[in-house]
Backbone:
């Protein structure tokens, strides 16, 4: 039985707690590849406002999405050194810029959204 199956059997799911604005959010750990420190982000012209740009990590271009913008947190002030959480979505890597990556937590599986 895999670790993910054990979590489901126990009714718990491991997640990465992150701060976006003043709010705490949880990202399923099975989607998280790594957490990066603040990196230079190359902007891409004519993208939606929630697309911050791309970062170059170990030979790969990774698109970076602005979590606060996507959540429509209009009064959000970007911290000096945000984190980029690299998420695996299917076969792609996507970076999610968050204010802070906090710690691993367990959440009830019933509260997790797909």
Residues:
């Amino acid at each position: 039985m895999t670790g993910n199956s054990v979590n489901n059997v126990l009714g718990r799911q491991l997640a990465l707690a992150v701060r976006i604005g003043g709010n705490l959010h949880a990202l399923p750990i099975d989607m998280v590849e790594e957490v990066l420190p603040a990196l230079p982000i190359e902007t891409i012209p004519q993208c939606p406002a929630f697309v911050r740009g791309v970062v170059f990590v170990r030979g790969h271009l990774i698109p970076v999405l602005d979590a606060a913008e996507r959540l429509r947190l209009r009064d959000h002030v970007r911290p000096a050194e945000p984190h980029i959480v690299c998420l695996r979505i299917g076969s792609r890597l996507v970076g999610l810029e968050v204010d802070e990556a906090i710690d691993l937590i367990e959440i009830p599986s019933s509260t997790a959204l797909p």
Observations:
- The beta strands are 12-20, 23-28, 32-36, 51-57, 60-66, 83-89, 92-98, 100-108.
- The domain at 3-109 is CATH 2.40.50.180 (OB fold (Dihydrolipoamide Acetyltransferase, E2P)).
- The two ends are 21 Å apart (CA to CA).
